[in-house]
Write a structure and sequence with these properties.
The protein is mainly beta. It has strands at residues 2-5, 8-10, 16-22, 26-37, 44-49, 55-57, 65-70, 75-80, 89-99, 104-108, 112-116.
Length: 118
């Protein structure tokens, strides 16, 4: 399973770091990503990262957010800076996992709430 953490209340312009830990019967992890869902809106992609570290960002977060991963620790991170009120959302992590039976599917974390407000 995936366990996301690090959300909270932050003022506009502030920083926050999200973490996501993968645990269980994991053989390998392919690409990973962060997604978010704001109240009344659909879930949207924030950023993705391949196993080798190739990254992709939504235009709305480019230059402000940085996605990274530690393959040895099976961890995913999202460093967020220059936060804006419109970044307020529940943030979800996703990992494309090959389990020990060699079955491949997406795992999703439970979500962590980020609120940007003064």
């Amino acid at each position: 399973q995936l366990q996301a953490s690090g959300g909270g209340l932050v003022q506009p312009g502030g920083c926050l770091r999200l973490s996501c830990a993968a645990a269980g019967r994991i053989f390998s992890i392919n690409d990973m990503g962060w997604y978010r869902q704001a109240p009344g809106k659909e879930r949207e992609l924030v950023a993705t990262i391949s196993h080798g570290g190739t990254t992709n960002y939504a235009d709305s977060v480019k230059g402000r957010f940085t996605i990274s991963r530690d393959n040895a620790k099976k961890m995913l991170y999202l460093q967020m800076s220059s936060l804006k009120p419109e970044d307020t959302a529940v943030y979800y992590c996703r990992a494309n996992v090959v389990d020990t039976t060699l079955y491949q599917r997406d795992w999703w974390g439970q979500g962590t709430l980020v609120t940007v407000s003064s």
